[in-house]
Each structure stands twice: as C-alpha cells, then as structure tokens.
Amino acid sequence: MRVSILVLGLSILASPVAAQCGGSWSGFLSGIRSEIRAAGLNATQADAFLAGARQDQKVLRADRAQGVFRKDFLQFASAVISQNRLTNGARNAKRYKSTFDRIEREYGVSRGVLLAFWALETDFGQVQGNFNTRNALLTLAHDCRRPELFRPQVIAAAKLYQRGDFDPQREKGAWAGEIGQVQMLPADILRNGVDGDGDGHVRLKTSAPDALVSGAKMLRGLGWRKGEPWMQEIVLPANLDWSKTGLDTQASTADWARMGVRARSGKLAQGLPGSVLLPMGRKGPAFMVYPNFRVLFEWNKSFVYVTSAAYFATRLEGAPRLDPGHPDPGLSAAQMSVLQQKLARRGYDVGKIDGILGAKTRPAVQAEQKRLGLPADAWPTKALLNAL
Fold this sequence. Notes:
With 388 residues, the chain is mostly helical. Among the domains are: 231-316, no CATH class; 333-387, no CATH class. Helices cover 45% and strands 5% of the residues. It has helices at 25-38, 43-50, 57-63, 73-80, 83-95, 97-106, 111-122, 133-142, 147-162, 186-192, 208-221, 253-258, 291-295, 303-316, 333-345, 361-372, 382-387, and strands spanning 131-132, 172-173, 231-235, 251-252, 262-263, 273-277, 287-289. The strands form two sheets. Strands 4-6-7-3-5 form a five-stranded antiparallel sheet.
C-alpha cells in the first residue's frame, strides 16, 4: 500500500494556463479538453482520452485522510521496515544487479536509496494502486485544494496517451495519480522516463528496470550528487549545543567532530557539509545527514517518510539496526495541533494545523525551546506545551 504524501516541488510541470477548479463537471472537462488540444492532441485524441471520465469520491476521501504521518519516526520506521522487506531488498539487489550497476555508473544514485523507495512505494511492485489514474488526476484537478499541482498532470497524462504509453480506461495506480513501481507522476514520466530494458517502451508498471532507471534519472535531475552519502547514524556528546541541530544548521564534518560528534560505525564523511538530525530529540536516534538527504524531499515532502526511507536505504546497504535510545514521550495528534496553534499565534509558519510534526513545525519548536531555556532539540514535549 502506498504511504507517501503528495506535495510536489521541483518535479512538476508548470501549467500553461492559470489553474481552474470547481464548477460543473461538464464545464470543467470542456476546459480540460481545450487545454489538451492546445497541448497538441487532435480532437479525436482529446475525446478518446476523456471518454467516460468521472469524478472519484474515493480519491477525495484518501486525499483528506493521511493520518499515517502522525506517527513518530520510530513508529513509522518500524511499521514500514520489516525483515521481509530487507530480505526482498537483498534479493532484488541481486536480481537486478546489472540495472543497479548501470544506474550507479550513469546517474550516481546508490542502489539502497532506490530499493528503499521501491519497497515503501509499492512493496517492490506488488501493490501499485487500484485507482483509475486519469479519473484520479481529473478529480484532484477539479477539486480546489491543489488544482495548480494536478491540472498539469492531466495534460501530461494526455501526452503519454498520445505517444501510446497510457491507456485512460485501464491505467491504474495510486490515489494521487502516481504510476508504476516507484510511483511517478505523468509529468515526471515525460521528463525522466527511461527505457531501462531496451524494449522500446517506458513501462513503469511492468518493467522494474524501466522504473528504477527512470527514478534514478529523476533524482539526479533534482540534484542528487554522485557518489556521496545521504545519512549515517552518529553518537553525540552530552554537552552538545542542541540549538545547532536540525536541517536549518549545517557545518563541516570536521567541525562536528571537534564538537564531539562521531559516527556510530566507521567515520564521518570527509569534506562534506552535514546536519545533525534528531527525529525524536536528543534522547532518541541521531543521524548525520548530507546534501543528498535533502534531495529526497523532492520525491516526498513528509519528514517522517523521508527520514525512514533514508534510514532504510542505509540498512539495505549494510548499516546495523539503529540505537533507538530513550526519547522523551511525544505529543498526541490532538496535543500537536494545539501546539501548532500556539506557535502560529506567535507568528511562526507551521503550515497546516494537522497534528503532524513536519518540516515547518520543527524549527518553530526549536526556536521556542531556545527562548524558554529548554533543550532546543526540536522535539516537542508536554513541558514545552505547558510552558507556552
């Protein structure tokens, strides 16, 4: 089952016209048809692409029910990283060794990263979603929450149909319109789709090489740096200045070493900037994350998802099981919502009040911890909530 959240960044195609939404379904489809024609499809192709199109209320319900991201890092990681997935990851690494060798040679993306996303997105291609992709994209483009994100994807799907790589009646995938074994949107397939198995087509649903090479090309286009690490587990000194932790602060690994930070196994990467990431505060797991870690947020915007995927990727490449530590109890979803409201009233941009400790809420938490004289490790506790 696909668990990632859809909030797109650099991987989206810009729409040539202002996004329109709402209104009658027939009027909306008429506007879409005009835009499809403007994109180069003839009248017959446009009509065939839209034939039988309907709204899917299940898509809207799925869009509004993403409570899985309210889990903390250890809860989420333990739920998605199983021994079965580690075993299957090793098996697939061996089965597609030549594909991964090609990927690392041409794109510089480590096989562990692609294996992790392949596992988390579709369980190595086993669960790719059962939503009609065209209808899902049209439904989300008509809905007025994020039409500017989904309308271009409808046009991209029409272009895939025009070249023979998309069946509007039968193409199925995730509720948010992603297709194939690593769950890519139509616009990303147009830009990054690669025929990885040499059969003359880009088939992300049925061809693992096509899906993996296409995913690697997309990551490289988003800024992946060849041959560099993305994350490693670290051990921290008890007297570290916690306000220096988090993604907003970077220092050289040499500087971190001078502050007493060391790798749990091996050595810190040399000559790279890094950030100390404490997904559950100073008493929980600790990681050094490098520039490539930040690229993963262009694949998925969820902090807990990306951190779990990055850690899973290290495990798939031989890293030991992490030290969970003894983190302080976190907040419930309801308490997190109250905290976000309090932070918003103080002028912080925490994004949507959703009870999720995301990338925008964490810096606000850390700033208030520092102001109040609490350990500024960006992990919200009842002590912080009460102090506010």
